[in-house]
Amino acid sequence: MQFQQLQYFVAVSETRHFTRAAERVHVAQPSLSQQIRALEKELGAELFSRARGNIALTDAGEALLPLARRILADADTARIEVQELAQLRRGRIRLGATPSVCTGLLPEVLRAFRDRHPGIQLLVEESGSHDLVRELARGALDLALVVLPLPSPSPALTTVELLREDLVVVSSPRERGLGRRVRIADLQGERLVMFRHGYDLRELTVAACRAEGFEPEFAVEGGEMDAVLGFVRAGLGLAVVPRMVAERSGADLRMTPLAGPGLHRTIALAHRSDVAPPRAARELQRMLLDR
């Protein structure tokens, strides 16, 4: 049973005329008649009685008609659903991002995307780069904003560099000033508020301190971005965070740049190499790259 045959059958049922049915579905009348006969042969029953030129449904035709209409309606619904997805009227994006990117970069971009495509559902997972890479690999995310370089070994991912940002030192205004700029070596002996294990900013900061020949001293450790900033505001210690986050954190934090060469990190968009992101995710990817 072919979809086209059902279309022809419904057209004849509604017009009760083979020629008018053929005109409705834009096919030659002999072709339509041939397809109806093929359908009857496959079903093993006549669908129309053709006595004296009058077209009427047989019992088999009456039984098939509501089913055929339902099949055609479902197919039309499927067509509309796919077109809406293709035209970004519906769909979803599963986006992963580090907490600092969620705080600094994503709000404005997601607002712009939402204004253009209000029917797209946005699902955001906030985690460290290591966790996001794992979620990408198992297919739980469509896109992720991760910190380069990726953990090794890592699954086959395609990455596109998005931005390179400076890291700065933040402190409570109640604490003594650090001067106009601070060197990594100046952090020796200072109490640091440190992110949890597996967090890229933790690894970057600890590696920079060790490169200067000392182990950093932690006043408190284990937090995500909001917790770390809250601990710094409370005067528990200093923290090394992205400039974008520090600039959006308000006047209750003092921001001190790092002296050259300083510390930097590269944020990239990543997705699985073996699976193309959905249409909506590709549109968000374009907006992030064009921002």
Q: How does this model look, in words?
A:
InterPro entries: LysR_HTH_N (IPR000847), LysR_subst-bd (IPR005119), WH-like_DNA-bd_sf (IPR036388), WH_DNA-bd_sf (IPR036390). Keywords: DNA-binding, Transcription, Transcription regulation. This is LysR family transcriptional regulator. The chain is α/β, with parallel strands linked by helices and 291 residues long. It has helices spanning 3-15, 18-24, 29-43, 59-86, 99-104, 106-116, 129-137, 200-211, 225-233, 243-247, 279-290; strands at 48-49, 56-57, 91-97, 120-126, 143-148, 157-171, 191-195, 217-223, 239-242, 254-257, 264-272. The mean pLDDT is 89.
List keywords for this structure.
291 residues, Arc Repressor Mutant, subunit A, D-Maltodextrin-Binding Protein, domain 2, 3 domains, 7-stranded mixed sheet, 23% strand, rod-shaped, DNA-binding transcription factor activity, transcription, LysR_subst-bd
List the helices and strands and how they pair.
Layout: H1 3-15, H2 18-24, H3 29-43, E1 48-49, E2 56-57, H4 59-86, E3 91-97, H5 99-104, H6 106-116, E4 120-126, H7 129-137, E5 143-148, E6 157-171, E7 191-195, H8 200-211, E8 217-223, H9 225-233, E9 239-242, H10 243-247, E10 254-257, E11 264-272, H11 279-290
Parallel strand pairs: 3-4, 3-5, 7-8
Antiparallel strand pairs: 1-2, 5-11, 6-9, 6-10, 6-11
